[in-house]
Amino acid sequence: MFELSDPARLTAGAVILSAITVASGGWFLTRVVRGLAPATEFQKSFFRAGHAHAGVLIILGLICLLLTEATTLTGLWSWLSRVGVLASAILMPAGFFLSALGAGRTRPNRLIGLLWVGAGFLVAGLTTTGVGLLTA
User: Fold this and answer.
1) With CB atoms 3.0 to 4.6 Å apart as the test, which of 1, 17, 63, 71 could cross-link to 132 if both were Cys?
2) Is 13 part of a structural domain of the chain?
3) Domains in the chain, number
């Protein structure tokens, strides 16, 4: 039987519960697509991208969390491997959604920077997990 460390178990439990927010985001997206929440074409595309990234990155983040258990990583490297992709699952969708907020918006605002910070966490988390697995 595979047993998770306490940090991995607690993180996974919190992430699974937080995935409920992706479901509520999906409900919002159906309102946008049906015209019940006004949005420009730019906003619709960013809202779709934010929702898609949230779902996919949560799954990928949980996989990295589990795979970290098979590494010998410690300290900062272990933390980055466990939560790097999960941090991107928050930051990247936030960049899409928050940079598109505002009536009639047709271009992202400065909060688009969250997308790039999230991309940095994504690359760092994937790299650390991959190297950790290859060197274990």
Assistant:
1) 71
2) yes
3) 1
Q: For the segment 9-57, what is each residue's pLDDT rounded down to a tens digit?
A: 999 999 999 998 888 888 888 999 899 999 999 999 999 999 999 999 9
Q: Please, are residues 88 and 119 in contact by the beta-carbon 8 Å criterion? A: yes
Phi/psi class of residue 42: alpha, beta or left (left: φ > 0; alpha: ψ in -120 to 50)?
alpha
* For residues 83-110, average pLDDT: 96
Name the phi and psi angles at 84, rounded to 5: -60, -50
pLDDT score of 1 more than 70: no
Residues 105 and 68 sit within 8 Å (Cβ to Cβ): no
Question: Can you give the length of the chain in residues?
Answer: 136
Kindly report the pTM of this predicted structure: 0.92
Look at residue 1 and tell me if it is in a domain: no
Q: Is 87 exposed, middle or buried (0-12, 13-18, 19+ CB in 10 A)?
A: buried
Alpha helices in 1-136 (DSSP H): 6-18, 20-33, 41-68, 75-99, 113-135
* DSSP structure string for 75-110: HHHHHHHHHHHHHHHHHHHHHHHHHT-STT--S--G
